[in-house]
Amino acid sequence: MQIVKNYREDAALRASFNALAEATFDGLNFETWFQNGHWTDSYRPYSVVEEGRVIANVSVNDTPMRVNGKTYRLFQLGTVMTAPEYRNRGLSRLLMQEIEKDFGPAADGFYLFGHTGVLNFYPKFGFAALGGETVYSRPLPAADTAADWVQVPMNTPENHAKLWAAMQSNRFCGGFDMVNNPGLVMFYAGQFLTDCVWYSRAMDAWVIAEPDEAILNLQAVFSPDPILALDQVTAALGGLCPGCTTLTLGFTPADPAGWTPDLVAEPDTTLMAKGRFFEQGGFDPACHRLPALAHA
Ligand SMILES: CC(C)(COP(=O)(O)OP(=O)(O)OC[C@H]1O[C@@H](n2cnc3c(N)ncnc32)[C@H](O)[C@@H]1OP(=O)(O)O)[C@@H](O)C(=O)NCCC(=O)NCCS
After folding, report:
1. Which is nearest to 103 in space by CA: 132, 125, 131, 87?
2. How far is Cα 63 from Cα 124, in angstroms, rounded to an integer?
3. pLDDT in tens, 26-77
4. 218-256 burial string, b = 16+ CB within 10 Å, else e?
């Protein structure tokens, strides 16, 4: 039995990791993400391996967050799983200790989204619930006939590359933004939100906007223009979802004026955290939302 780290290029171990993830989390699988070339060093599995089989795992997502112009090293833990026959033998603890050893010194903080069924588990490693996140919404403006949004389907390597490049040259700012991790955004954009990516040449802006019944969720905005205002982008969004009446943000706006804040706690997951950034109030549930596309 040994700990093996960051082994994504090892096809056999990756298959074993995917098999455990599928069995544990209702079909969760990272293979398409890998084959698309979007799994990078920013997602590192830490696994206990026995005779070539992954029997336990905790993954470390490198999700630097920029708040008020400063970037913090925040690591998100995810894909926390131990094969049923190996549970309660201290394997998760072993992995948590190894991660603390490797990332603790550089980290401003660690966070995760804990499933309701295991909320007593994470406090054993120093995590505490943060008390929710704030989701901002406003009525969706009527369709702007002058808006020039073009859908960019995320079903070709060329279009993946365009969105990836847009993220790398992004200078649009929210109030709590993930930086330097396009691969994590592509986990969603390249698989589940393939019809939700739009580009406006007039604004040189990309949006990822996901309709959900009468709500249009604006998950992300990317633009090389540092003075592009969120109001300018949202004023032109109506045409993306004619049946929608409400616009919500999957991120924190830089300026909350004109937005209705709603402190929400998801019914099935709880945001938990530890480390100096969180202890010093760097994340304020009453005004911050971790980017929805940063959830791992
Ligand atoms: C939760 C899970 C990862 C724990 O893994 P594990 O390898 O059995 O954990 P460990 O044996 O290292 O246990 C570490 C500590 O947590 C405790 N613990 C283990 N499972 C727990 C649970 N479900 N709830 C609360 N505490 C738990 C152990 O008693 C131990 O406490 P101790 O060190 O004070 O004695 C495992 O049960 C699992 O895979 N569950 C299904 C997937 C899941 O829900 N993952 C979390 C998603 S957010």
Report:
1. 125
2. 23
3. 999 999 999 999 999 999 999 999 999 999 999 999 999 999 999 999 999 9
4. bbbbbbeeeebebeebbebbbbbbeebebbbbbbbbeee
Residue 67 alpha carbon to ligand 1 centre in Å: 32
Query: 136-262 has which CATH code?
Result: 3.40.630.30
**CATH topology match: 2-132+265-294 vs 136-262:** yes
Does the domain made of 2-132+265-294 have the CATH classification 3.40.630.30?
yes
Q: What is the pLDDT of residues 112-148, one digit of tens each?
A: 999 988 989 999 999 999 999 999 999 999 887 778 9
**Would the CB of 90 count as within 6 Å of ligand 1?**
yes
Kindly list the domain boundaries of the chain, sorted by start residue.
2-132+265-294, 136-262
* Residue minimizing CA distance to atom 9 of ligand 1: 92
Radius of gyration for the chain, computed over Cα atoms and rounded to the nearest angstrom: 20
Residue nearest to atom 27 of ligand 1 (CA): 121
Nearest residue CA, atom 18 of ligand 1?
121
